[in-house]
Amino acid sequence: MLMLLVELRNSKLDTQQNNFCRQSMLTLVPTPIGNLEDISSRAIDALKSAELFFCEDTRVTKRLLNLLSSKYNLTFTCDTFQSFHHHNEQKVLKSLDKNLLLEKNVVYVSDAGMPCVSDPGSTLVEYCIQNEIPYDVIPGANAVLTAFAMSGFDATEFSFFGFLPHKGKDRHEKLLKVLNSEFLPILYESPHRLLKLLEELAQIEPSRMVFLAKELTKLHQKTFKKTALELYEEFKKSSIKGEWVVVLQNKVTSGSTLELSDISELDLPPKQKAKLISKLTGRKTKEVYQEILDKI
Q: What is the pTM (predicted TM-score) of this model?
């Protein structure tokens, strides 16, 4: 009799749990940033219960489901995929019937990592808030927090800047904002622009400590921590591949102030020295450059 009561109780709990899982809502699901084993059981349950997938890239999501199916012998029954990314999100939201989110389990996944963190998804969350639609966010893999913990900088606060603009005045202004951040600055950079970033840092603040994390959680994960100038000198001779997270020592905790004498001693081309001195003194770069040439 006791065994029967226990079985009935467990059956009732299982039914309650299944009913909870079937409650129609939007669920934002983080996906691995490299290592497939970083997927959580909660994330897998959400993917299995999905009746509609919103995806940053439907091809990437289908590939992920295939990999999970193969590795863990899982079956994902949903075959309805809707593209939802930065270029079409407003169009999708305008035509979206909110009853769809009330009647179906909808799962949103970005290509890798946590949705809404330098990835699409925030407008979908705001849509749910405005229309009183239930939603949930499952915690999971995130490159920002992983790099923050790996950097070794003694900080309790940080500022995340995402990707810098590709070029021009916007990039320069954003970079200055990063360098002047009160909190530990963290940003993403592509392999095509990492050397450019290191060159910019070496020109503006060569002694700033920089932590680089390459291909986090993947087979070729690698980290570096040196001054901006040292990293630039090292990387300009290398072939740069992979995705990068950059963590900079913040301005408040910087160990020392760069002096004019420090710049004079650096093994840099005259133009770069002139730009650095110009930044510190406010003098015209052309004037400083000529003075340096006169001393050579």
A: 0.75
Residues 6+ apart with CB under 8 A from 183: 155, 157, 158, 159, 250
Tokens of 288: 């400083």
84 touches 141 (CB < 8 A): no
Distance CA 272, CA 49 (A): 57
Q: How many structural domains are present in the chain? A: 3
Cβ count within 10 A of residue 285:
14
For residue 177, what are the CA distances in angstroms to 173, 249, 274, 285?
6, 13, 22, 21
State how far the Cα of 176 lies from the Cα of 181, in Å rounded to an integer: 9
Upper half-sphere CA count for residue 177 (Cβ side, 13 Å): 14
Rg (CA), the chain: 25
The answer to whether position 218 is within a domain reads yes
Is 108 in a helix, a strand, or coil?
strand
On whether both 53 and 123 belong to a single domain, the answer is: yes
Separation CA 164–CA 215 (nearest Å)? 19
Please give the Cα distance from 140 to 114 (Å, whole number).
Answer: 7
Q: Does residue 249 sit in the same domain as residue 228?
A: yes
Name which of 125, 123, 131 is nearest 97 in CA terms: 131
Q: Which domain holds residue 288?
A: 259-296
Distance CA 207, CA 153 (A): 15
Q: Confirm if 179 and 205 have CB atoms less than 8 A apart.
A: yes
Q: What are the 10-residue block averages of pLDDT along the chain, 296 residues in total?
A: 43 44 81 96 97 98 98 96 96 94 95 95 97 96 96 95 93 93 95 96 94 96 97 94 95 54 74 79 78 80
Q: How far apart are the first and last CA of the chain?
A: 98
